[in-house]
Amino acid sequence: MTAAAQEPRTAVVTGGGTGIGRSVAALLAADGYRVAVLGRRREVLEQVARDTGAVVVAADLSRPEEVTRAAAEVVDALGAVDALVLNAGSAQRGPQDTLEQVAAHWLTTMAQNLLPAVLLEHALRPHLRRPGGRVVAVTSAAARAVGGEVAYAASKAALNRWVVTLAGELGPDGITVNALSPGFVPDTGLYDGPVDPARIEQAGRRIAVGRVGTPDDIADAVRWLVSPGAAFVSGTVVEVDGGRRV
Hints:
By secondary structure, the protein is an alpha/beta fold. Helices cover 44% and strands 14% of the residues.
């Protein structure tokens, strides 16, 4: 076996400081990947780094100049990127009584959920492993559900559609691109503090497996999508929701 073949695989995880991103980073690091975690809050990223040995890159990935810097830091630290996990996102709340407020809400939501994935993938595209690279965008079951916060749902639906086109663009280079659509996972940064246990119990009764999801459930699905075993899966949305009954 050559020295190059012995090198550990590499992974970049956005939104890697909390929730699903943190679980993905920890699982891939435990599997032997060299991991870089990206996000806006350096302090939570550094805690992940202490636990996993990950490289920390703090940046606002909705800003092109910061994406350029972040991508350069990633490439300097990791070299070629085997797995790009685009998990960064946020659900906005606030008044929408005026047109100005509505515009601000939608623009902010798209900037936080859609732009970071599109910009970072574009910046790192020349450095994705060819062949064998993997791109996974973490979207949401909200994209296909009725109700909920519509701007957030629309931003995640846009990511699902973007994945289809990107898979066609990168497929000839041996790179797969997929969306991973989690169901209800209360232990994330999407909610304002802890979720009411009564809401969690009620939600669990509407799921086939009888419980809500955890960040580790989603991380395990990411682990599969970035593995060699998922080489024939591309351009699709993989739903990880426990089998919703309604």
